[in-house]
Amino acid sequence: SAVISQKPSRDICQRGTSLTIQCQVDSQVTMMFWYRQQPGQSLTLIATANQGSEATYESGFVIDKFPISRPNLTFSTLTVSNMSPEDSSIYLCSVETGLSTEAFFGQGTRLTVV
Amino acid sequence: RKEVEQDPGPFNVPEGATVAFNCTYSNSASQSFFWYRQDCRKEPKLLMSVYSSGNEDGRFTAQLNRASQYISLLIRDSKLSDSATYLCVVNPDSNYQLIWGAGTKLIIKP
Asked: At residue A25, does pLDDT exceed 80?
C-alpha cells in the first residue's frame, strides 16, 4: 500500500490568484495522477505526473492552467493558476505502486474560489 | 456513450436489505475492474477488485460479464455504515490509467 499526505486540505482563494497543492508519498511509486472531483460528480483525470519530464494532460486541461511538477518518485505538486470560481472543486492526488493496479488517494484539497 | 456508466442514484434502502449496483463499460478490451467506495467528503478507497469468475468478500459479491460488458456489486444484509458512494472503475489497458464511473450513492435507512 501507499500512504499519501496531501496539503492543504482546504483553502479559500481570491479569483486571479494561484494555489499549489502538494502530494507526498511514503514510498517510491511508479505512477502519480491528479484528479478533479466537482460536487456530486465522479473523478476527472487532469494529468499524469511524470518523474523528470512534463506531465501528460488530458483533453480539456493545459499546462498553463495546471502546471505540475514531479521532481522525484515520492513527491508532486499541482498548481491551479489564475483561479476563477469555476475552479472550485476537490483536487485529489492518486498513486499506483506498480505492484497492483489499486489506486491510493490523498485526502483531497477542497478549493473554493471567491 | 460514456466509457463507464453506472445506475443513477441515490438508492434509499432499509437496513438489512440486499442492494445491487450495475455498471457497464464501452471498451471491450478492458483489462481490470474495480469497485471503490467513497464516503462523504473523503477520498475513494478500494472496496474490491472484480475477477472474471466473480468474487465474494463477506457481504459483498462482485461479478463480471465480459460478453455483456457489465459489472455488478451486490451487498447483502446492508448496514448503516454501508452508506456511501460506490464507484465503478475500469482499467481499459495496461497503462494504469483508470476510467471512473460517476458513482452511485447508497443511503441505508434504519
From this structure: yes
pLDDT digits (tens, 9 = 90+) for A41-85: 889 999 999 888 899 999 999 999 999 999 999 999 999 999 999
Determine the pLDDT at residue B1: 65
* Chain B contact probe: residue of A43, A44, A91, A100 with most B CBs at under 10 A: A43
Give the model confidence (pLDDT) of B49-61 as tens digits.
998 888 999 999 9
- CA-to-CA distance for A101 and B108, rounded, in angstroms? 30
Q: How far is CA A17 from the centre of its chain?
A: 17
CB A2 within 8 A of CB A106: no
- Of A45, A101, A108, nearest to B32 by CB-CB distance is A101
From the list B41, B98, B101, the residue facing A103 with the nearest CB is: B98
Q: Is B94 left (phi over 0), alpha (psi -120 to 50) or beta?
A: alpha
Instruction: Please report, to the nearest 10 degrees, the dihedral formed by the alpha carbons of residues A23, A76, A97, B84 taken in order.
Output: 40
